[in-house]
Specification:
Order of helices and strands: EEEEEEEEEEEEEHEEEEEEEEE
Low-confidence stretches: 6-10
Mean pLDDT: 95
Structural class: mainly beta
Number of strands: 22
Number of helices: 1
Shape: elongated
């Protein structure tokens, strides 16, 4: 298939076409396996890809970064059913979602006569043949459209494409909030699919969101679903997937999530000073400016070093005066150190595990 346009431009060589980050599922800062995904779950898995449920599904799923891929790819996102829910409740929903910042979508020109349509393409493989629905949601004006695709042959990689029409009514705000949300349904109860699938932009109606979806991936523990090569681009033509280097993709992901330590017991990630013998203020300079000031969690808090003499375990911390570029950690240690106010301090392992996670996801 030719990708040469009427002006002789090789569309396959143009960069910055893909509006999706980590569409090849290469980056997995949070980990490569996420088990026990069931009712009440709202969890980012592979970078930028969030698993969510609504209602009360009783099935349980596991998501992994998988090496089963079509030619030209190294990773896919795999969903496995581990506990079945053969008959979804009316309000139950299992979904994968992807959010795009509004300021990165201004080229679409939504809300005006010059609005642009887009093309979505991806590779998918599953044992469950049938019709699947993707809801495209525009949260600024509460509008929706839908793209459907069919898995025709079980256990076979297939490339799917669909058109998202131009919206001349709804305006995507030029800010750091979510401008578009792409939601891939894995199973939807009747209240999510009892309406009519919208083939053009309209005001949001829950019953229309996944109308036409016939597959419930959670109805049997033999079920699985793999996806990779997800691309969203301006225009009505699906061009070859835009492969970026791992470094480029990882850097783009770090606008939304950064992780330091990941359970390591050595190394230093922050520097600062002691307030007194039991607390210190430490500054972490982020590797990449984040979308907003991040929320900080630390499953393993690590230790604080006093003048290179001894490491002291951190029992708790607070964040304050943090920005999109830096995070301030106010650490309280276990016991009393020999440090005095103004002594230098370092945040790191010192033999104790540390894992600081900065989250600025949409």
């Amino acid at each position: 298939v030719s990708t040469i346009d009427n002006n002789g431009v090789n569309l396959g060589q143009l960069g910055n076409r893909n509006l999706i980050i980590n569409g090849a599922m290469n980056v997995a800062q949070r980990g490569t396996s996420f088990a026990g995904l069931t009712a009440g779950t709202a969890k980012y898995t592979l970078d930028r890809w969030k698993f969510e449920t609504s209602g009360a599904p009783t099935g349980v799923l596991t998501i992994t970064q998988d090496t089963d891929t079509p030619a030209g790819f190294g990773s896919s996102l795999k969903v496995d059913c581990t506990t079945a829910d053969a008959s979804l409740a009316s309000g139950a929903l299992l979904k994968l979602s992807y959010r795009i910042e509004g300021q990165d979508l201004q080229q679409l020109g939504y809300g005006g006569a010059g609005a642009q349509q887009t093309t979505i393409s991806f590779w998918v493989k599953s044992n469950k043949t049938g019709t699947y629905a993707i809801m495209v949601f525009q949260p600024d004006d509460n509008r929706q459209e839908q793209v459907q695709y069919t898995i025709d042959v079980a256990d076979t990689w297939e490339k799917k494409t669909g058109i998202i029409t131009a919206d001349t009514t709804g305006v995507i705000d030029n800010n750091t909030g979510a401008g578009l949300v792409l939601t891939f349904a894995l199973g939807a109860g009747n209240s999510w699919r009892s309406g009519t699938a919208p083939t053009a932009w309209k005001s949001y109606l829950k019953a229309d969101a996944f109308a036409g979806q016939t597959v419930n991936l959670s109805d049997n523990t033999a079920n699985y679903f793999n996806i990779t090569g997800v691309q969203l681009e301006v225009g009505d033509t699906s061009t070859p997937f835009e492969h970026r280097s791992f470094d480029q993709e990882n850097t783009l992901c770090q606008r939304y999530f950064q992780r330091y330590g990941a359970g390591a017991t050595d190394g230093r990630i922050g520097v600062g000073g002691w307030n007194n013998s039991t607390s210190a203020d430490l500054l972490i300079s982020l590797t990449h400016e984040m979308r907003v000031t991040p929320t900080v969690s630390a499953p393993s808090k690590g230790r604080v070093l006093d003048f290179a003499i001894a490491w002291y375990p951190i029992t708790s911390f607070i964040t304050g005066e943090s920005t999109t570029k830096t995070v301030n950690i106010g650490a309280t240690i276990s016991g009393t150190s020999g440090a005095a106010q103004g002594d230098s301090a370092f945040l790191g392992g010192g033999g104790g595990a540390y894992d600081y996670q900065m989250d600025a996801e949409l």
